[in-house]
Structure formats: C-alpha cells, structure tokens
Design goal:
The complex is a heterotrimer of chains A (381), B (309) and C (275). Chain A is α/β, with parallel strands linked by helices and 381 residues long. Chain A is built from 14 helices and eleven strands. The longest helix of chain A is centred in the N-terminal third of the chain and has 30 residues. The radius of gyration of chain A is 24 Å and the shape is globular. Chain B is built from twelve helices and two strands, in the order H-E-E-H-H-H-H-H-H-H-H-H-H-H. Chain B has a two-stranded antiparallel ribbon with strand order 1-2. In chain B, helix 11 packs antiparallel against helix 12. Classes of the chains: A alpha/beta (381), B mainly alpha (309), C mainly alpha (275). At the B-C interface, helix 1, helix 3, helix 4, helix 5 and helix 7 of B face helix 1, helix 2, helix 4, helix 5 and helix 6 of C.
C-alpha cells in the first residue's frame, strides 16, 4: 500500500484568500435565494406528474414483483419461493424495520416497489397522502377467506386499498426468570427488578398509547391535556428505562433488556430460542394492529401484486406463513391448517372479552402532529 | 479578483511557483482553461448532486409541515419559524451533548492516535506500511458488524464484565446505552481518520529538527511541545477536523450503542423526517448544523491556521 | 507519565500494542462468532462451521454482497477519475475561482451524512423524478467519495517537486508526455490511497444508502441493518471473515508489489534528479 501523504488543512480548503469570508457569505446568500426557485420548480413539476391516469393493461406486465416487507416476516422456504414457482414471477425482496422507515421512503413517491406491508395507522396515512393504488378486488377471489372483522375494519372498510397480512397486539415482553414481581399491566415498568433494564417502542403512537392506557385515557385521543399528561408520563418513564427502541428483540434474548414494550409476534419468535421470555397483553388494554398488503401509487407491476395478495389468502399458503412466523392470521379459511397451539394461544388469538380492550389505531389526520411534537419533546428531554 | 492568484505555498514543500515559460510554443492551452476543463466533471457532478440537493434542503426548511403532505413549499409563504424552533433552548442540551461527545472522542483519538502514529513513523522501520495497513484492516468489515462486536464486549454478560469480574472489580456494570459506550463507538469509528494524517505529517518531520532542539539544550518535554507538536500541526488539524465533523453529525453510533440519555443532534434530525413528522424543522436543523460546522472550522482556521501552516 | 518519558520507544511500543488491541477487539469477536453454533451474534453456544455452508445458500446475503461490491467499485472508479482530474487542476494550474471549487469540495466533505442523505433523496424524487434504484445509490456514493479522492491526491500533488516536470520539459517532453511519464507516476500513490479510502467509505455506508436505495439495491450494510432486529446472523460474520481474509491477502500482495515498485521508482527519480 502506498503511504498516505500529508493531509494538511490547506489541502482540504484553500485558506489563503483573505477575502474568503465575505465572498463565502455572498455566495451563501445567493445559494439560499436560489433554493426557493429550485423548490418551486420541483413542486410544480411533481404536481403535474401526479395525475389519475388509468392503470395500463395488466397482461402486459413483465413477470416481476418488487416486494418491500418487514424484516423476518415470511417463511423463507415457502412464502416467496412457492409463489415464484407457481406463477413464474420473479420477486425482488427487500426489508424495512419500522413504519416510519417505510413511510419516509414512500412519502415522496417513485420508489419502484409494487407491494408493501404497512401497519394500519401508516396505511391510513399513506391513503390520505394519495400514495396508494386501489386494489382491484375482482382479481382477488380468495378475499372470501378472510375473517369478516378485517373486511369492515375502520382503517379500510371494504378493503379498498389493503389486504390483511397478519395481526397482533402491542404488549409487554419480559424475562420471567429474572423479573421479580407481577407483570400484568403497563405499570410493570415501575418494578424495581427492571429498573434501567427495560425499553419502550420508538414509535410515537405506540409509546403514547402505552401511557394513555396506563392513565386510563382513550389511546386514540386528540385531547391536548390528555396528551400532555401522557407526555409527562413518558418523560418520567424515560428515567427508568434503558432505551427507546424498536429493536428490542436481540437485547431481550441476550439478557441486556429484561422487559420491553413489544409486538406479540416478535416475542413468540424469541421464545423459540429463549423459552423464559414471556408475553402479556396488559390488563388495562393495548393496541391491536394489522399489517396489510398495499400497492404504492405508480407501482410498475400492480397486477402481479394483486396476484400475490390472492396467493397469500390461499388457506394453505396463509397457514404455512402463520405456522412459521407465529402471528395472528386474518385468514379464517386457513384456521383448520394452522397449528393448534397457535390457534388456542390466548395471547395470539385472545378471547372476546380481551379482544374488546384491544382497539385499532385510529386515523386522526393532521392531529397526528400533536403526537409528533410531543414525541420529539419526549425523545429530546 | 486578484487574490485567486495567490497560490498556496505550504512551508517546507519544495514546490516552486510556475515560472513564466520561455518556450511560448508549449503553452497552447491557457491555465484557466485547462484548470476549468479538468474541473468540469467534478463541478457538474457537484452542481447536480450537491448544490441543488442542498438548496432543496434549504427550501424545505422554509416550507410548511403536514401529516398528509410532509412538506409544502410556496414562494408566498416562506416560513422562518422552523429556525426559531430549531434554536429553541429545549434542543440546546442535545446540541451541547453532540459537541461534547465529538470533542471527547476527538481528544481520545489524539491520545490514542498520536503516539501510535509517532511510533509507526519513527520506530517501525521497514514495517511501517504493514502497520498502516493493520490500522485500516478492521475498517474493511462493515461498520455495523464492528459495532456489533462492541455490543458483545460491552453487554451485561459480556466480555468486559467477565474480565472485570475475574480481577475482582464486579461483573455487573452497565456499559451499553451509556455515554461511555457512545464515546467509545465514535472514537473507534473515526480513529483511522486521525492516525493516517498524523502519520503522514510525522513521517515528513525532519529528524534533525528534534536533534537540533536537544543540542540547543531543550529537554524532552520542551522538544515535544516546541518542535514536534508544531511540526505535525497540519496533520493534527486535519485529523481533528476529519474526526470531529463526522462525529458531531453521527447518528448510527448513538442509535446502536446509546440509550435514553445519549441522543445526538443527528438522531433528532433523523426523527424529524420520520416519527417527528416535521421536515421543515429537520431541514432547518440540518442547515444550522452545516452552518455551525462551516463557521466553526473557519474560525478555527483563522486562529490556528496562521501559526500552524 | 510525564511527557519526558512518554516518547520513549518502549512506552510507545506498549501504547501501540494497546491501540491495536483496541482496533482488533471487535474484529476478533466477529471472527469468533462466525463459528457460533446458535444463531446469535452475542451469546456463545459452541463451535460450528455451519454458517459458512449456510452462507453459500443465503441468496439474500450474497445478493446484498454483490450489490455492495458493484456500488463500491463503480463509485470508486468514477470518483477516482473525476476526483483526480480535479486535484490535478487545483494543484497544477492557477485560475480564477479555484477557491470556489475548493469550497464545494470542502462542503461535500463536512456535510453530515444524514443531511446529505436527505438532500439527495429530495433531489432524486422531487427534482429529478428519478426512481430509486442501484443507480441512485451509486450516484450518491460517488458524491461523497469524490472529496476524499481530491483531498488525498491533492496532498500528494502539492508535495511534489515541480523541478521534475521542468526537467522533463527541458529534455524535450511534450506536456502530455510529461504528464503520463512524470506527473501521473508520482501522483499514483495518492491516487491509489484516495481510491482505497473511497472504496472503504463506500463499503461502509448505511445512512445515505438507506435513503437512496430502491428495489433490489439492498447493500450488505443495509441487509445487516435489517437483521439487527433479531440479531445479526453468524452468516454475516462468516461473510465478513471471508472478506477480511481476502482483503488481507490482497493487501499483502499489493504491499509486496508496491514495496518493490517504490524502491525502483525512488531509484528512477533519484537518477533523473541527479541527471
């Protein structure tokens, strides 16, 4: 290897000019004023391209599907390989870690993906932002297989934009060997045995819902004073937790975290390697969520995405998926093929009285900003 | 604009100013043309992929936020409120924390890097290149994997705790998600950016200067601070900048090794584009961060530059 | 320890050993865990080589690795060529606006990753209306690689002896000949170092890549980032170990060659200078 030569500052930036600062200042000003012009160009041309052109002939679609899904959310040996075998459509598969990451990527359009799996609240946000293509239900005969609860759900009545993938709850995962004391409700964060060894989710609505449930308020509230109370609750809670993270699975496995606000299916996956990790649905209530397949606006292969949706709703395919990833299945027709221990597990498929305390996240429109601002305060406090 | 003609003659380099060429036939291409032609690809590239994108961020910072449409920009409604929001005292602790983290890491890099670079340059003999390569080798693996290695070392039932336990210092310390972990991660991540420029300038240092200093009766301490440090100053400054600047804006390290009390300005900016739903604020913070770095560097240069160069 | 004794070779050597331990500690961990039995990068459960055989069938990891190599090599080549041209211009010629160019390059160097990521995404999507793909990732990588190439090459060029070029001219070389025969060989160590720096930085990038990538352009760092949720699979450690070993081998070979070349090169320059 060659020797790196002296890298002195002079090489990085010519500092010899005495008038540098003033000229830089002038340039900066010119720069700033040009900014507006460019932005104006950008926005005007983007509005031009966002028309409602009818979708082109589906039969002409190349045999390709760009699928953007959550990490570890398929049966790697079957879900996608079997689809490719059946249809000859080549699937390009990429992953994301959070709804925020998905939304940030989709929010300006033009990503080239055909199929995404947002959670209900994000789905609503994307629908409002005109980021989704309506689903042609005539191409999805298997829709009859899903539980009616998911045909009429408030986030997308009639499945105009979405086909449910899996569902679950947002509760608490903890190490039952190391946590001393009762973990039944959100106040478990106050247990001395988990002090400094717990975490809550890095998702504004989920974190606030935890606080609102604990305070016996409406988890979908837009009431400012309730939200302020929840914010104070979270800032106080922050002093007792180790981190705010959506990547709690590995720390929970390694013992770095003893208790975490967690998604049901994640905890069941952890149990595979570490059986003493337990999941509870807090008694004062928790959010349930539905991850649904949707087609982003401008997707190059929407027809193939619909084929995939129909494929997933097949009873055998749906059962194979659920048996592997251990989430709740919206596929009623698949029930007879789903493992008994998943079906009978009250944490995956809760009884009706518990289900009543597991609302979906509601679409609150621009009121979402009330959450966003308070969330920034919580995180920076 | 006559000042553009002031070429930068770095002291100690054997560069001579280009002389007027006696044989005029050789000078077919004027210097300004040759220079601009050679710079054409770079400048075109930077206009499209640096200047315009940065202007878009500036424009974003003057726009209006929303949930449905994350950013609305209109000439008639330029909003500067994001800037006053970004300068809100609530963000001050995070800003200060980022600077402190970056400064401490930079200091640690100097303490770790300077003696190493000095040793490689002066005492490693013909194995100098081997050692330099060894400095870079760890950085050919993925950053995330390396950080993961630190996770294994620092976690509660990790190697550091068992090592401390073996020597009787207790094995239940919290290292992960602390200030210590983030500073360690930053130091580790940017150490080569300190070592390489330092090495380069030490390697060029004239040995006879050190000897002359001894001959003139200076002790080792005095020689270190009066001869060695000033001579390697350019490398030191370059190293400090190459470590401090990326460290201030870093957000992956605190994300992976940090906890609730270690958020840096980079995390806050990132959050504004995600769950914060506040693109104008995120953009305004970005613009301010850039401005802070540029101004800081410039002031630093004015102060140190003259003595050092 | 006083500064007096601090610079003694003995202490320096000890210090060097400690710093190298620090640098290699996580690397040793990653190599060790590539032989872990369970699928955990954090808890040791026993020795196994199954992750190496599993890696051969891990289509996604290998695809990500191929993408990484593709992005890093294309970005390095392009950035090295245009960056070297810029460095030549800035050191060999005097003209108006040099400091303007330098400022541009400096800005790209100091721009925090997160800011550049946001700016580039805004550009691709809002301004240029380009769909995100591996091409946008490459373009983004070139953008942040150029400055590193310029800085390193410029450092090399500024330090070199202009008398050699004059000597070449006196001996009747055309400017082009002087460039190819004298300037380029002299700048080569800087160009190689700049290219290597660009390559490593590109290999490592997470933030900018995660913002600018589209379907099928997942790079290895992005792939690993996605795996953080359930812990990075030891397959990735196995892959990193292989990369590490190949890099070590390549560098050893390159080191031997450059050692020989630099000896010859130094001799040639001495001869010319004397002549």
């Amino acid at each position: 290897m060659s020797e790196p030569d002296r890298v002195s500052l002079a090489f990085i930036w010519d500092t010899d000019s005495p008038r540098f600062s003033r000229r830089t200042f002038v340039k900066t000003m010119a720069f700033a004023s040009a900014a507006g012009f460019i932005a104006a160009c950008g926005s005007s041309s983007s509005s031009g391209s966002g028309g409602t052109t009818p979708r082109s002939d589906k039969k002409a679609e190349p045999k390709a599907l760009n699928f953007y899904n959550w990490t570890a959310y398929v049966d790697p040996d079957h879900t996608i390989p079997d689809f490719q075998k059946q249809t000859g459509i080549k699937v390009t598969y990429d992953n994301y870690n959070s709804n925020d990451q998905l939304f940030a990527k989709m929010s300006q359009g033009g990503t080239g993906y055909d199929l995404i799996v947002p959670t209900d609240a994000t789905l609503v946000k994307m629908k409002h932002a005109d980021l989704l293509e309506p689903v042609d239900l005539s191409l999805i005969p298997n829709l009859k297989n899903i539980d009616p609860r998911f045909r009429t759900a408030a986030y997308d009545p009639g499945n105009k934009y979405s086909i449910p993938w899996q569902w679950g709850t947002t509760g608490i995962g903890f190490d039952k060997k190391k946590v001393t004391g009762d973990v039944t409700d959100w106040d478990a964060f106050n247990l001395a045995s988990v002090n400094g060894k717990s975490s809550f989710l890095d998702e504004a609505r989920d974190a606030f819902a935890m606080a609102l449930f604990a305070l016996k308020k409406d988890p979908n509230t837009v009431n400012e004073s309730d939200l302020d109370a929840a914010k104070d609750y979270l800032i106080e809670l922050k002093k007792k937790v180790k981190s705010i993270t959506s990547d709690y699975q590995d720390p929970l496995t390694s013992g770095e975290l003893l208790l975490a606000q967690a998604y049901s299916g994640d905890v069941f996956t952890i149990q595979g390697t570490k059986p003493n990790i337990e999941y509870v649905i807090p008694t004062s209530g928790a959010f349930s969520w539905v991850d649904s397949m949707a087609i982003p606006k401008g997707a190059p292969h929407p027809g193939n995405a619909e084929k995939f949706m129909n494929y997933i709703l097949d009873p055998q395919v749906g059962a194979t998926l659920t048996n592997y990833i251990n989430y709740g299945s919206p596929n009623k027709a698949a029930e007879k093929l789903i493992h008994k221990d998943i079906l009978d597990n009250p944490l995956i498929n809760p009884p009706a009285d518990v289900l009543a305390k597991l609302p979906f996240q509601k679409d609150i429109g621009e009121d979402e900003l009330k959450y966003s601002d308070r969330w920034t305060e919580v995180k920076t406090a | 604009m006559a000042e553009v003609d002031t070429y930068l003659p770095t002291r100690g380099t054997p560069e001579s100013k280009p002389k007027p060429e006696p044989k005029a036939k050789r000078r077919k291409v004027p210097e300004w043309l040759a220079g601009n032609l050679l710079l054409l690809p770079t400048s075109l590239w930077f206009v499209f992929l640096l200047v315009i994108p940065t202007l878009l961020v500036v424009a974003y910072s003057l726009g209006q936020r929303g949930v449905i449409e994350p950013i609305r920009f209109s000439w008639d409604h330029l909003r500067f409120s994001s800037y006053s929001q970004a300068l809100n005292p609530d963000f001050l602790p995070i800003f200060i924390r980022s600077i402190v983290y970056a400064a401490v890491s930079t200091g640690a890099c100097v303490l770790l890097g300077f003696p190493l670079a000095y040793w490689i340059a002066r005492f490693a003999g013909r194995f100098r290149n081997v050692f330099l390569v060894l400095v870079i080798i760890p950085f050919l693996t993925s950053y995330l994997i390396r950080t993961y290695g630190w996770l294994v070392i620092l976690q509660r039932n990790g190697l550091l705790n068992s090592a401390l336990g073996t020597i009787g210092l207790g094995d239940n310390h919290e290292f992960l998600n602390t200030h210590f972990a983030v500073i360690l991660g930053l130091t580790y991540g940017f150490l080569p950016f300190m070592i390489l420029p330092l090495y380069a300038s030490i390697e060029r240092m004239d040995k006879s200067l050190v000897e002359a200093s001894y001959d003139l009766g200076h002790g080792k301490t005095s020689t270190l601070f009066r001869v060695i440090v000033p001579t390697v100053a350019p490398g030191l400054i370059a190293g400090v900048l190459l470590v401090f600047i990326p460290a201030v804006g870093d957000f992956v390290t605190p994300e992976l090794l940090g906890g609730v009390k270690t958020q840096m300005i980079g995390n806050t900016i990132y959050d504004q584009f995600n769950s914060g739903n506040n693109w104008p604020l995120g953009s305004a913070m970005s613009v301010l961060l850039m401005a802070f770095i540029l101004v800081g560097v410039f002031v630093y240069l004015l102060r140190v530059g003259e003595e050092a160069l | 320890m006083s500064a007096k004794s601090a610079l003694r070779p003995r202490y320096l050597k000890l210090h060097a050993v400690l710093v190298f331990l620090f640098l290699f500690a996580p690397i040793v961990i990653l190599v060790v865990f590539s032989f872990n039995r369970a699928r955990s990068g954090t808890t040791w459960t026993g020795f196994s080589t199954r992750w190496y055989s599993k890696l051969a069938h891990d289509h996604n990891a290998l695809q990500a690795f191929r993408n990484t190599l593709k992005v890093a090599s294309v970005a390095t080549v392009v950035a090295t060529i245009i960056g070297t041209l810029a460095a030549f211009a800035l050191t060999r010629f005097r003209f108006r606006g040099r400091s303007g160019y330098s400022t541009l390059i400096f800005i790209s160097l100091v721009m925090p990753e997160i800011v550049m990521a946001i700016a580039l995404t805004a550009f691709f999507k809002r301004f240029a209306h380009i769909d995100l793909s591996i091409r946008t990732v490459i373009a983004a990588h070139i953008t942040f690689c150029i400055a590193f190439v310029v800085v390193v090459v410029k450092a090399r060029m500024t330090a070199f002896d202009n008398r050699l070029v004059e000597a070449a001219a006196d001996l009747g070389a055309t400017p082009f000949q002087a460039f190819v025969r004298v300037i380029l060989p002299l700048a080569m160590p800087g160009i190689v170092a700049g290219a290597m720096l660009a390559f490593t930085i590109s290999l490592d990038d997470v933030v900018i890549t995660s913002f600018t990538s589209g379907p099928g352009s997942t790079t290895l760092p992005l792939f690993i980032f996605g795996q953080l949720k359930f812990g990075v699979s030891p397959s990735i450690n196995a892959l990193s170990t292989i990369v590490l070993l190949s890099a070590l081998t390549l560098l050893a070979i390159a080191g031997v060659f450059s050692l020989r070349a630099s000896k010859r090169g130094a001799g040639a320059i001495d001869a010319k200078t004397l002549g």
